[in-house]
Amino acid sequence: IQEGIQSLGGYADIFLRNTLASGVIPQISAILGPCAGGAVYSPAITDFIVMVEKTAYMFVTGPDVIKTVTHEEVTKEKLGGATTHNETSGVAHFSAHDDAECLSLIRELLSFLPSNNLEDAPRRAGSDPADRADEELDAIVPAESNLPYDIKDVIHRVVDDGYFFEVHEHFAKNLVLGFARLNGRPAGIVANQPAFLAGVLDINASVKGARFVRFCDAFNIPLLTFEDVPGF
């Protein structure tokens, strides 16, 4: 506060660098503790946010100010905790139990991403043969169109080694997003989820999907779409 307008200029420099790097290099924010006020805008405009449960908070205005202005009492966890931003607001993409898991998630995420928009995503050899077939795929989708099923069961059987790294898992569950590998090459997965809201695309799911598609487009990551939505 004492620094006045100079502190605002410092924040502006940070936001400028975030903006210039957008779509050029992947930007990942790890929120390990409180992040409030002007500092919260920078992670909000990065590509991915990982928050640690119980210790990480993100909000522009804290509970004390809210109580003074609106006379409403709210906890830090409810206002801007990992659960809130992963499930309700959709600001965060991943939730970790502790700092170690947070860093592990980031390392795994980076394994699917190129260093910049001019490089190819890293390729990793898998154990799946090129001619692998899975007869169980014939039985997953029910014959009756009104019966739900879990699209993740399909995804795991299609991608290399059955490994699917889901993004935004707890927000807008009617759309499933994430990364996987096909013949060792990373790919973005976009899939309707019939097991939740019948897989319909509402506002949250559409915003969630559009942002992920834009990211994959910026870094030349191919997309694989699993489509099963009512009325389409």
Describe this structure in words.
- The chain is α/β, with parallel strands linked by helices.
- The chain folds into two domains: 5-110, 2-enoyl-CoA Hydratase, Chain A, domain 1 (Alpha-Beta Complex), CATH 3.90.226; 137-226, 2-enoyl-CoA Hydratase, Chain A, domain 1.
- 34% of the residues lie in helices and 18% in strands.
- The protein has helices at 5-21, 41-44, 63-70, 76-80, 82-87, 99-110, 137-140, 151-158, 203-218; strands spanning 28-31, 34-36, 48-52, 57-59, 94-96, 165-167, 175-182, 185-192, 223-226.
- The strands form three sheets. Strands 6-7-8-9 form a four-stranded mixed β-sheet. Strands 1-3-5 form a three-stranded parallel β-sheet. A two-stranded parallel sheet has the order 2-4.
- The mean pLDDT is 93.
Radius of gyration, in Å, reads 20 Å
> Total domains, how many?
2
Number of helices: 9
The secondary-structure class comes to alpha/beta
Report the principal-axis shape: globular
Q: Please count the beta strands (DSSP E, at least 2 residues each).
A: 9
Query: Would you identify the regions where 5 or more consecutive residues have pLDDT less than 50?
Result: none
| CATH fold descriptor of the largest domain | 2-enoyl-CoA Hydratase, Chain A, domain 1
